[in-house]
TrEMBL record:
Keyword DNA repair on entry: no
Protein name: Glycosyltransferase family 2 protein
Source organism of the structure: Lacticaseibacillus jixianensis
Domain Glycosyltransferase 2-like, chain residue ranges per copy: 7-145
PANTHER family associated with the record: GLYCOSYLTRANSFERASE, GLYCOSYLTRANSFERASE EPSH-RELATED
Amino acid sequence: MANPLVSVIVPIYNLAPCLMRGVTSLMKQDYRNLQVILVDDHSTDDSARLIKAAAARDQRIEPIFLTANCGVSAARNAGLAQARGLYVGFMDGDDWMAPELIAQFVAKLEQGPYDILVSPFFIDDPRPSTVAKSLTRSRPLSRRQFLAGMMAPVGYMRGYLWNKFYRRSIIEAAHLQFDEAVALMEDELFNVQYALAASRFYYLGRPAYHHVVRADSTTQSLGVFAALPQQLAALWRIRGLIKAGYASGAVPEEPVRSER
């Protein structure tokens, strides 16, 4: 497929001061065939008005307004339920993308074809970080390599959603959703479940996503020690998923030989 539809899901809660930078970066992508799903999680600031105004200017934007504040997992699930694209990506509402990101991701996913693509990223704190040259070597990955990089406490793969693209067909075939009862590391849980249902993995060493560090993010607000019990519980569950997945024999074979 030459220019498949790409769905980008953006959960939003009280992000009015920084929201439009990210939305504008999506609208200015070199890749044009987009479904941009902006999910307002019942914000109490001006976010909803900004979302409505953006949707009025660009028909590729599809807003969803939740009637109660249900959390980021519920917002992402609402976006997944509305997604129509061959590929699905996520962006945090206060982050932004360089214009070439989606075009690069789609080209490589189609070329493989691959089931999931992961890429290094910039950390804006407040200026963008530099990405080491050693992290810019593109290569196929085995499932174990992907899971190891995702579970690593440091690095540029990690368990985040926003530096990856997914095939919607795999999400739907595996009936994947975000666990709305989990407040932290819900993205790692989703990624593990997806990886166990996928078979073709690729690392694209071209950073183009900008993750913006904010003092009032969920993890920062809880603090390192307060967040630790929830993180450990999530890690325990993740390890159980991986063990059970391989033990069941239901994990698909990997047709792509990874580079060592």
